[in-house]
């Protein structure tokens, strides 16, 4: 269980994390979603006591992280897979992690096995690891104390598709066994694949929050495909019938139901190449909006700098 | 219940077979001894750390060899061997101290270490104890080497073997070694950057010495704030006077205590990224 309440971090006049409140529950994977620079990492650092919040609180297992007697035994944390000493072997990195978590030495082999690093790979120096291997090693370090909470910042970075799939399974299993998982990502698709609950953050603020089903529901939107020449005519017909119509890529998006669209198209004699309930809902729209805002802001800053 | 599940640890304390995971209260806090053990391990488990230790021991042996060669006619005294051995060690052991204190910030492993143990000053304490222990272990090896060298040299030259120079020298050597390592730790902690720490460790006392030599009032009272002057009596004949201990105290407070205190304050407050 992770409880974050009114957590805020200000750097001078810049507010990196702005009064966020949410709970990550046991038995569920909570996806912390937001574009780069949205404040996800700052929030996670505050959660584990690496950054002092300007105000608000963060509790892990009912207490501030810093007051856990042996935190690594209860909470597995991976904030940056690159933050490992390049001159140590993978195994040595885990031997140290096991000691810090108060675990016996054989926990190292178990953790290696769990993340799929072979013993030959474990004998190599971390400096020679690919980013994917470092992610696995970092995850092994987080899992070594057999914790009940996992806090992972962008864990899928650098993993190949098979690795991402494997990670998804591992996190789902962890949650199925009652563990709490909080993971961050800047990719909507990645979060969609694994998270039960989603907390979306942009510009330091929470902009959407809820279960995956709630947030990804189509909200009655219908996506219609027509040949290019016919698109404007169908849009006009739909608007004429009192529906809203937007253009999204090659498709029309409308709040009319599929049946309504079919009837209007038939009457107007417009061919329809596909007709579907929108799978991308409010969340994707908001996420794209956030990302676009962020990009625009960065451009402005670059220009003014 | 889920007795076969991967995360269930049968026989976990507290709640019996159905226990999911240990209660926070059931897990003992990370002990300081264990922390020191981890920090000692970190000193020798990388190539850099190992080579630094090997270099220290090789240079010590080389310097002793030179001393033996110079005194080959009449045999070499134990004291001469130890003084010689102190030359490379006085330079390199503080470097080990700087590295211990600052390396995690340069390597970014601070992110991991201070997550595993959020009580940061405990970690710094463990690092300090670990590197002092290592420094004293090196001193012990050095003394053993020097004893062997001395005995061999005297046997060959037909001189008298003299192994005991009194407790004052033992205490002096231990204090000198400890202070050297601690000063490295202090500069490393102050700057939290290995290259910068090493450079300033060497530069600052040199600049201070120049200042002392060129200013007459400072020159007269040098022993109160100049390290080299205050530490010299440690390996002199017999016990130091009370005033000399006081001078050692003030210089140590200035050169070790002050940077260490400021450094600890920085470590405790700094955002780890």
Describe the structure.
- Chain A: Residues 2-228 form the ABC transporter domain.
- The complex is a heterodimer of chains A (305) and B (273).
- Chain A is of the alpha/beta class and 305 residues long.
- Helix content of chain A is 40%, strand content 25%.
- Chain A contains twelve helices and 13 strands.
- The two termini of chain A are 42 Å apart.
- The model of chain A has no long low-confidence stretch (mean pLDDT 91).
- With 273 residues, chain B is mostly helical.
- Chain B has one domain.
- Chain B is built from eleven helices and no strands.
- In chain B, helix 2 (47-70) packs antiparallel against helix 3 (78-107), helix 2 (47-70) packs parallel to helix 5 (120-157) and helix 6 runs parallel beside helix 11 (242-269).
How is the topology of this model organized?
The complex is a heterodimer of chains A (305) and B (273).
Chain A: E1 2-11, E2 14-24, E3 29-33, H1 40-47, E4 55-60, H2 71-74, E5 75-78, H3 90-100, H4 107-115, H5 119-122, H6 131-143, E6 149-153, H7 161-176, E7 180-185, H8 188-194, E8 197-202, E9 205-211, H9 212-216, E10 222-225, H10 231-240, E11 245-248, E12 251-254, H11 258-268, E13 274-277, H12 282-304
Parallel strand pairs in A: 3-7, 3-8, 5-6, 6-7
Antiparallel strand pairs in A: 1-2, 1-4, 8-9, 10-12, 10-13, 11-12
Chain B: H1 32-44, H2 47-70, H3 78-107, H4 110-116, H5 120-157, H6 167-191, H7 194-214, H8 216-220, H9 222-225, H10 227-231, H11 242-269
Helix pairs in contact in B: 1-5, 2-3, 2-5, 3-5, 3-6, 3-7, 5-6, 6-7, 6-11
Protein name (chain B): ABC-2 family transporter protein
Keywords (chain B): Membrane, Transmembrane, Transmembrane helix
Organism (chain B): Ornithinimicrobium tianjinense
């Amino acid at each position: 269980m992770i409880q974050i309440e009114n957590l805020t971090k200000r750097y001078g006049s810049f507010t990196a994390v702005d009064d966020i409140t949410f709970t990550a529950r046991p038995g569920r994977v909570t996806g912390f979603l937001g574009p780069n620079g949205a404040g996800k990492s700052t929030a996670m650092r505050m959660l584990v006591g690496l950054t002092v919040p300007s105000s608000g609180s963060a509790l892990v297992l009912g207490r501030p992280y810093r007051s856990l007697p042996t935190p690594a035994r209860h909470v597995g944390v991976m904030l940056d897979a690159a933050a490992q000493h390049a001159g140590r072997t993978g195994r040595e990195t885990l031997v140290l992690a096991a000691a810090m978590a108060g675990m016996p030495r054989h926990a190292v082999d178990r953790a290696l096995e769990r993340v799929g690093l072979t013993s030959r790979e474990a004998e190599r120096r971390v400096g020679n690891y690919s980013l994917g291997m470092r992610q696995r090693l970092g995850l092994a370090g987080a899992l070594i104390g057999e914790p009940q909470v996992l806090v992972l910042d962008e864990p899928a970075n650098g993993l190949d598709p098979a690795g991402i799939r494997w990670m998804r399974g591992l996190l789902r299993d962890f949650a199925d066994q009652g563990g709490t998982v909080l993971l961050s990502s800047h990719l909507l698709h990645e979060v969609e694949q694994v998270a039960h609950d989603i907390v979306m953050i942009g510009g330091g603020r929470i902009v959407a929050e809820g279960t995956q089903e709630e947030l990804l529901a189509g909200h009655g939107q219908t996506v219609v495909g027509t040949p290019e020449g016919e698109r404007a005519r169908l849009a006009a017909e739909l608007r004429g019938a009192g529906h809203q119509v937007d253009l999204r890529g090659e498709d029309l998006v409308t709040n009319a139901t599929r049946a309504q669209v079919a009837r209007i198209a038939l009457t107007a004699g417009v061919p329809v190449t596909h007709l579907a309930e929108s799978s991308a809902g409010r969340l994707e729209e908001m996420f794209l909006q956030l990302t676009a805002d962020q990009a625009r802001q960065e451009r402005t800053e670059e220009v003014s700098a | 219940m889920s007795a076969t599940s991967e995360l269930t640890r049968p026989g976990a304390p507290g709640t019996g077979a159905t226990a999911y995971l240990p209660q926070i209260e059931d897990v003992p806090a990370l002990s300081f001894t264990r922390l020191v053990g981890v920090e000692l391990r970190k000193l020798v488990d990388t190539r850099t750390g190992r080579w630094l230790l090997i270099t220290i021991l090789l240079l010590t042996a080389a310097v002793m060899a030179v001393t033996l060669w110079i005194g080959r006619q009449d045999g070499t005294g134990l004291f001469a061997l130890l003084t010689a051995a102190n030359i490379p060690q006085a330079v390199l052991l503080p470097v080990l101290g700087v590295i211990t204190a600052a390396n995690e910030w340069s390597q970014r492993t601070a992110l991991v270490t201070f997550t595993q143990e959020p009580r940061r000053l405990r970690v710094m304490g463990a690092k300090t104890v670990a590197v002092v222990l290592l420094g004293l272990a090196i001193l012990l090896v050095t003394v053993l080497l020097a004893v062997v060298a001395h005995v061999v040299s005297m046997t060959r030259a037909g001189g008298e073997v003299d192994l005991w120079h009194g407790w004052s020298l033992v205490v002096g050597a231990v204090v000198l070694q400890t202070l050297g390592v601690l000063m490295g730790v202090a500069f490393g902690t102050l700057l939290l950057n290995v290259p910068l720490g090493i450079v300033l460790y060497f530069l600052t006392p040199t600049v201070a010495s120049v200042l002392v030599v060129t200013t007459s009032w400072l020159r007269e009272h040098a022993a109160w704030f100049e390290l080299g002057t205050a530490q010299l009596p440690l390996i002199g004949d017999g016990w130091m006077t009370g005033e000399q201990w006081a001078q050692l105290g003030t210089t140590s407070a200035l050169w070790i205590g002050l940077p260490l205190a400021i450094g600890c304050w920085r470590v405790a407050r700094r955002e780890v990224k």
